[in-house]
Amino acid sequence: MTETTSGARGSARRKEQAKGVSVQRIFTTPGTHPYDEVTWERRDVVQQNWKTGETIFEQRGVEFPDFWSVNASTIVTTKYFRGAVGSEQREQTLRQLIDRVVLTYVKAGKEHGYFATDEDAEIFEHELTWTLLHQVFSFNSPVWFNVGTSSPQQVSACFILAVDDSMDSILNWYREEGLIFKGGSGAGLNLSRIRSSKELLRSSGGTASGPVSFMRGADASAGTIKSGGATRRAAKMVVLDVDHPDIEEFVETKAREEDKIRVLRDAGFDMDLGGHDITSVQYQNANNSVRVNDEFMRAVEAKGQFGLKARTDGRVIDTVDAAGLFTKIAQAAWACADPGIQYDDTINDWHTNPETGRITASNPCSEYMSLDNSSCNLASLNLLKFLKDDDTFDGATFAKVVELVITAMDISICFADFPTEPIGDTTRKYRQLGIGYANLGALLMASGLGYDSDGGRALAASITSLMTGTAYRRSAELAAVVGPYEGYARNADAHKRVMRKHAAANDSIRTLTTLDKDVQRLATKAWDDVVKLGEKNGYRNAQASVLAPTGTIGFMMDCDTTGIEPDFSLVKFKKLVGGGSMQIVNLTIPRALKKLGYTTETIEAIVEFIAENGHVIDAPGLKPEHYEVFDCAMGARSIAPMGHVRMMAAAQPFLSGAISKTVNLPETATVEEIEDVYLQGWKLGLKALAVYRDNCKVGQPLSDAKAKGADKAYDGAAEATVEKVVEYRPVRKRLPKRRPSQTISFAVGGAEGYLTAGSYPDDGLGELFLKFGKQGSTLAGVMDAFSIAVSIGLQYGVPLETFVEKFTNLRFEPAGLTDDPDVRMAQSIMDYVFRRLALDYLDFDTRSFMGIHTAEERQRQLETGSYVASESDGSSDSDDDTESEIVSLSQGVPVKASAKAPTEASEVKSGAGAASAKIVSGVHSSAELLEKFQGKAADAPMCMTCGTKMRPAGSCYVCEGCGSTSGCS
């Protein structure tokens, strides 16, 4: 994409020009602005809290390209458009947002000598605009919040602070965190310099409080501050070294709070995340991590002793059993997902600036690891944009985009503001960047590769290597133009050593197919250039790459998967332009099936099966050896814990920082399994690792049965002596002595009978009786017993629609014609009875979803194409929330869409097949959709903004409804 005017890559003409980068076109056309190449449309963005019905945001007539999804445009409008809603200053179009950011970058690039000519600056502007417009990459959220506004130009999402063993430093820690949270970012720090509660104070001779006590104040502060003003709660990371005397107290801190949550929940308090009473629980606003070193891990393996050292003089003041402490770490993580683990010696072995200081901490999501009092500007590329029609990865174009983006990211440091002067000083001296990617899971699936497979890992490693190698090559080229980072001279040998380590790791990638071999070949060339150019020019940036959660910006780019994560589930929740919604089978699935060699007919059958079942097990025509391609983070075929660890290990050697990712374990996982995950993470060379055992957090919105089971499992693991079990049982609601009822005579296939349905005065069906003409017959007796069973079920709260779903379409004699004009044919008596009950007692939306309509509604559908009456025909039974079965044949597969936006049905088309979609009733996110398929509650928090259940994004959570995240991306 670019060349420098100095060195072998520059021509004689360019050598005569001023220093600067010469920019080449990637996607744009000379004389045509990127905005003129797309079709724009106006949309209304109205966002509601589905629980309360409250409208929490409304902006009408916003402008976006027609290929942007409703979700992407909603999140950008609500999160990133600046100006008071309703005012003339409010941004109304994506053009204004992109221009606000891009033109600021171009101006700063010109002022600081990045471009060889004005023409190069213009090409840079157009290419950056095109890639953002077409969702090829995105900057991190603070860029969109702040750049080009009157606010401080904070561009970094990740911060690392420092705290020393003094009250002034501790109180300053509270202040600095608050400022960072206010600006929409997150921070992490290591508390190990603070003396332990087993040491004495110099001033008074009394016992010190210890770091855990000071965590309380910081936790309370974080809980009261919304990042960016209204975007999300604060995100923070607290780290403690494994040799700190208070390490056991630190490890058990959050697990003890989980015990408190259980007690309060069982006493009737609202302990869900975001609940009224959860604020009484401490330490819930931070992720905790233990920083372990190789000495400790070797002691764990040897089952030896390990010394805990005083902070004041470094002497060993206590000795613990290393394996026992390691088990306590794993047991706490088993109980509440904290603490995670960070591998200190591995982190510092890959450190480019050891002469300046060690790396002691990370940002909240564990992907940015650098010097104390520093920050990192993030950006992520959408990998699926580089998968070509011939199913090859366009590594050459990918590298050009990396050069473009890393150049822009470095420019941002020239004009950026920082929350504190020490952070600003360190960042300007070391210029840490964090380029990364999203949609890896979707890319692997579309390529026909399993996430937990050698092929999947080879491609991921090759892409990550190419990304970081290209970024550092660009960094070395920029160093020739605008100089290396200020701290480079004192760290030159270490920085060059780490570059050689990256290059050596690239040489060790075991490529398997042409797909990854071609990418790795480009990466090899990039790393050769890195070493040579760095030797000559130095480097502009101390760090270049990380793998962030990409929560909100992942939705902005319409990514199916976040960061390095696998696909969340095979069926997704999709919003429609008209305000409706549908479930849709991931569009990468048909492409993957085509890549694997399946015919169009088989693809359609498999997709239809997935739409109904949410998984691929026993899908018609799908070979079992291909199941792994469709394995997901959640669901019937979820990826094994070590599958996550191995993927992280494949990418880690090619990252300056680390990886934001949580290793998911099933609820049945043991403490020993978590120990093994943490041990293998160390052996495989990871820098950090976090785990999450399904259902371990009591503060999550769990079903009663699951919550009870989790408590019992925890009590057993913790060897508790008292177990309190709260049993919830349904209560029968009997009908009053006098109740309304109706009796219907019917005939099915010549068999005559009577259906009597009794109702609660104000609350629907409560009983039914079926009688047949031949009294005393076996059929009559069976029907009496069946009627009693169904009636009792209704009175215990079983919804009528459940019975309708189960008993309609049953086939047995007698069957055939009926004398009911609304149900002309019945496949059995049961089929008729429950169709009749549905028509009489269920609302239109529910029965229409089941395909049950009256004769009048069917006639209307034939005449108008809709089962519901339009406003113009004078009918009174139409309203905005009704749904219609609109059949759109997408290569032969029926698609159901909302009546409010029928044209959206066409969006599910794919070149290799079609993805079935249908109305989703009572579902508001993919996490809730997965609950319907699994039959159990998803272990995730509710969004505090819109009430939607969130889903994992790295080691954080993200809301599909409004884009809010619990992390820092």
From TrEMBL:
Keyword Acyltransferase assigned to the entry: answer is no
Instruction: Give the EC number(s) listed in the UniProt record.
Output: 1.17.4.1
- Biased composition annotated in UniProt, kind: Acidic residues: 874-884
Catalysed reaction(s) here are: a 2'-deoxyribonucleoside 5'-diphosphate + [thioredoxin]-disulfide + H2O = a ribonucleoside 5'-diphosphate + [thioredoxin]-dithiol
Keywords, A to Z, come to:
Cobalamin, Cobalt, Disulfide bond, DNA synthesis, Nucleotide-binding, Oxidoreductase
Q: What region holds the Ribonucleotide reductase class II vitamin B12-dependent N-terminal domain? A: 45-135
Listed GO MF terms = ribonucleoside-diphosphate reductase activity, thioredoxin disulfide as acceptor
Q: Does the keyword Nucleotide-binding apply?
A: yes
Q: Which residues form the TSCPD domain?
A: 737-840
Region of interest (Disordered), ranges = 1-22, 860-908
Q: Which cofactor does it need?
A: adenosylcob(III)alamin
Question: Any idea where the Ribonucleotide reductase large subunit C-terminal domain is?
Answer: 156-692
| One Pfam family per UniProt | TSCPD
Per its UniProt record, what PANTHER family does this chain match? RIBONUCLEOSIDE-DIPHOSPHATE REDUCTASE (PTHR43371:SF1), VITAMIN B12-DEPENDENT RIBONUCLEOTIDE REDUCTASE (PTHR43371)
Which family does the similarity line name?
Answer: Belongs to the ribonucleoside diphosphate reductase class-2 family.
Give the matching NCBIfam families. NrdJ_Z, PRK06556.1
Query: What exactly does this protein do?
Result: Catalyzes the reduction of ribonucleotides to deoxyribonucleotides. May function to provide a pool of deoxyribonucleotide precursors for DNA repair during oxygen limitation and/or for immediate growth after restoration of oxygen.
**What is the protein named?**
Vitamin B12-dependent ribonucleotide reductase
